[in-house]
């Protein structure tokens, strides 16, 4: 069975984006070693990406071309009138059944990018196998929570930690 990993960065106060989906805070502090925090190595382990529609819109605005064109991409949306878009398939059906079927298919790992509402839904349904979170040394005060709207308690098992010289902390959990 394929594994779903939530690989994400968040502020020290638990936000994955600012109130207007801004991400500039991710690069505002020094990174003299130019580390990618294991991002390239992680990308080698996956072949499928899952994201919510708002996150998809943010990803589209980050670069001139879609950054994950070489991967299979699914965008979850409540709208049934999205049509088609390059490099992605929109999922409007019963998302839990879709994900359970996807996990049964052959392939590499699956990356859950977010956003916060989708992260919470996956966590509530016990569909996240691993969480790799990079805690950035910044406090936003408000924004999009890592698990937006989560109402149930979940216990995670810490498997490893790594600290970087610029204050970033990587935490790995199994669920």
TrEMBL record:
InterPro entries: DHFR-like_dom_sf, RibDG_C, Riboflavin_Biosynth_HTPR. Residues 2-168 form the Bacterial bifunctional deaminase-reductase C-terminal domain. GO terms for biological process: riboflavin biosynthetic process. GO terms for molecular function: 5-amino-6-(5-phosphoribosylamino)uracil reductase activity. It comes from the Bacteria. PANTHER family: 2,5-DIAMINO-6-RIBOSYLAMINO-4(3H)-PYRIMIDINONE 5'-PHOSPHATE REDUCTASE, DIHYDROFOLATE REDUCTASE FAMILY PROTEIN (AFU_ORTHOLOGUE AFUA_8G06820). This is Dihydrofolate reductase.
């Amino acid at each position: 069975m394929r594994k779903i990993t939530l690989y994400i960065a968040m502020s020290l106060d638990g936000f994955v984006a600012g109130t207007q989906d801004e991400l500039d805070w991710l690069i505002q502090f020094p990174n003299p070693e130019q580390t990618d925090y294991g991002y390239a190595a992680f990308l080698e382990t996956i072949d499928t990406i899952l994201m919510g529609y708002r996150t998809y819109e943010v990803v589209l605005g980050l670069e001139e071309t879609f950054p994950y064109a070489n991967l299979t991409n699914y965008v979850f949306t409540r709208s049934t009138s999205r049509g088609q878009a390059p490099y992605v398939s929109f999922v409007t059906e019963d998302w839990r059944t879709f994900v359970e079927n996807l996990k049964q298919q052959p392939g590499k790992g699956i990356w859950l990018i977010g956003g916060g509402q989708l992260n919470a839904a996956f966590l509530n349904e016990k569909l996240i196998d691993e969480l790799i979170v990079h805690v950035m040394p910044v406090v936003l005060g408000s924004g999009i929570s890592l698990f937006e709207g989560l109402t149930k308690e979940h216990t995670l098992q810490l498997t490893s930690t790594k600290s970087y010289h610029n204050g970033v902390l990587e935490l790995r959990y199994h669920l």
